[in-house]
Every structure is written in structure tokens, then in C-alpha cells.
Write a structure and sequence with these properties.
By secondary structure, this protein is an all-alpha fold. It is built from three helices and no strands. Helix 1 packs parallel to helix 3.
Length: 85
């Protein structure tokens, strides 16, 4: 695979794998879903299609980060503020 986008795809996979460690349903669930998503698109050779898939992966990274920040915010709020009555 002499595709110049290969490095971007590998970097995306590693970043998603790292972010999946804290996934609410468990890291094993996330890892399996991630692997199946990448294996489903392993035969794509069109550079434009690969760029679209990488952009979608970047979007997923942003969504995961937002999910984690929201979870941390809720935990801190619950810990330091009285519950609303």
C-alpha cells in the first residue's frame, strides 16, 4: 500500500484507540467497533474517499472529546454543588 494517506489513517486509528479507553460501554466494545469500521473500508483506494473517511474520523474524535468533557463536568458539578430542588 503505497498510498500517501496511509500515515493519516494510521494516526487516526491510534488516536481513536487511545480515546476509546474511557468509552462508557468499555474499551473492548469500542476497540471491536473501531476495528470493524476500519476493516469495512480497508479496500478503499480512491484518495478523495479516504480523505472523506478521515474527516469523518476526525469528527468522531471531536464528539468523543465532547462526551468525555461533559461527563467530567457533570461529575464535578455533582461533587461540588448542591442538587437542585
Amino acid at each position: 500500500m503505497a498510498n500517501p494517506l496511509r500515515g493519516e489513517v494510521i494516526k487516526l486509528y491510534k488516536n481513536l484507540l487511545y480515546l476509546g479507553r474511557e468509552y462508557p460501554k468499555g474499551s473492548a466494545y469500542f476497540r471491536e467497533r473501531l476495528k470493524s469500521a476500519f476493516m469495512k473500508n480497508k479496500d478503499v483506494t480512491d484518495p478523495e474517499k479516504i480523505r472523506q473517511l478521515v474527516a469523518r474520523g476526525d469528527f468522531v474524535i471531536k464528539e468523543l472529546e465532547a462526551l468525555y468533557f461533559l461527563r467530567k463536568y457533570r461529575a464535578m458539578k455533582k461533587r461540588y454543588y448542591e442538587p437542585d430542588k
